[in-house]
Amino acid sequence: QVRVVESGGGSAQPSGSLRISCVASGNSYVSDVMHWFRQAPGKPRELVASVNHFGTTLLADFAKGRFTLSKENARNTMHLQMNALEPGDTGVYLCNLVRIHPSAGDYWGQGTQVTVIG
């Protein structure tokens, strides 16, 4: 069973920065895609950013120009650097690993809270 654990959340002021990380147990595989979702109270869960095994990233429009996603395959870890934070970025950020090979799986972490208050 793959375990996914987030870390690094906290509080920041508007225009501040936070870095959150996600580590998945075991090896990284070519088919792996890792995602960050966020969930704000009363709002639907939304995709923030994705990265595949080769380091190709995809950012939601609201994240472009402010957030940077990176991945370390050797440690099966991804980092989301969030700059120019806005109150609307507040929510629980959830890490999701989707794998096809060698065995299919869809793994979620418990989430890390990000709060932007001014």
Task: Describe the secondary structure blueprint for this structure.
Blueprint: E1 4-7, E2 10-12, E3 18-24, E4 33-39, E5 46-52, E6 57-59, E7 67-72, E8 77-82, E9 91-99, E10 105-108, E11 112-116
Parallel strand pairs: 2-11
Antiparallel strand pairs: 1-3, 3-8, 4-5, 4-9, 5-6, 7-8, 9-10, 9-11
Total DSSP helices? 0
Strand content: over 45%
H/E order of the elements?
Answer: EEEEEEEEEEE
Task: List low-pLDDT spans.
Answer: none
In which range does the helix fraction lie?
under 10%
Q: Report the radius of gyration as a whole number of Å.
A: 14 Å
**Overall geometric form:** globular
Distance between the termini: 40 Å
| Main sheet attributes: strand count, strand direction, barrel closure | 7 strands, mixed
Quantity of strands, as a count: 11
Structure, described:
- This protein has 118 residues and is an all-beta fold.
- 0% of the residues lie in helices and 52% in strands.
- It is built from no helices and 11 strands.
- Strands 2, 4, 5, 6, 9, 10 and 11 form a 7-stranded mixed beta sheet that branches. Strands 1-3-8-7 form a 4-stranded antiparallel beta sheet, with no helix packed on it.
- Strand 7 and strand 8 form a beta hairpin.
- The chain is globular and about 45 Å long.
- It starts with a strand and ends with a strand.
- The mean pLDDT is 96.
Annotation keywords:
single chain; 118 residues; seven-stranded mixed sheet
